[in-house]
Write a structure and sequence with these properties.
alpha/beta, Rossmann fold, UDP-galactose 4-epimerase, domain 1, 2 domains, three-stranded mixed beta sheet, 10 helices, about 40% helix, about 20% strand
Amino acid sequence: MKILVVGGAGYIGSHMLKRFRSTNYNIEILDNLSTGHEKNTLGYPFHNCDLADKNHLHSIIHKGKYDLVMHFASFINVGESYKNPQKYYENNVTNTQNLLNCMVQNKILNFIFSSSAAVYGEPNSIPISEEHTINPVNPYGQTKAIVEDILKDYDSAYGLKSICLRYFNASGAHTDGSIGERHKPETHLIPLILQAASGRMENIVVYGNDYPTKDGTCIRDYIHVMDIAEAHLLALEFLKEKQISEIFNIGNNEGFSVKEIIEVAQEITQKKIKVNIHSRRKGDPAQLIANNKKITDRLNWSPQYSDLKTIISSAWQWEQKLCSS
């Protein structure tokens, strides 16, 4: 089976490539390196291509004769999506549709999509199941919801079968220390906390300590990136066998507050982390916790690395490597 990994040079895509190493799948990568890193491609055949370049994209897809496409190439910064929604709609929606159109034209009808818990918006109930109302509260989440709707229509019209994986908070780094999170600018909480621990940043900013939670800070469901990669592999095998479209949450079924994460990070790093409290950010729900029963039941998936100490320890190992390089 031949698979094209779009966005394979990025954070989650590169962990997917590492997971593919122990399989017999024939893998190629497509990435424009706008946020990814070429050394993350791990020696697999690599196509440097932007999804906005329809001619180049069509040429690669046509020649590749792929059986399935995995799509990791979205912009993910919620704050930036408010400031520059055009950038997000063009890349996350228009460029994804360019990819889907190329696939349909070339009769490639299996697709695995990185969606997001951001499609749920402010939750009506916790934990959040896949049946929860779709009501995104920011442009980023809206782009993911739109693509999910496109995929339903492309299934009905063209027979394109897809698995949408709604990530909660992707976190951690590969336990062998070889790859990890390296966004510029970094916006994710755990790497920012660890940059404050390593001295690359002066402090960590906590946005709001007056939420209706146990300690006033936001609660999120953190899922280790290696567990996310495993979920993709199981989704691929499910899609190959069943040929039906599905949606699954990828989450830990447990939430941790910002304050708890800082405390565990201080324990693991043995560093005092300076905290500055700012006002709440627009569009930040108080709690986001996944109900992961569907993926555990249907795909027999269970998180192996997503306890908080493993997440932070692996990310700290990676942060120390970045500091020394």
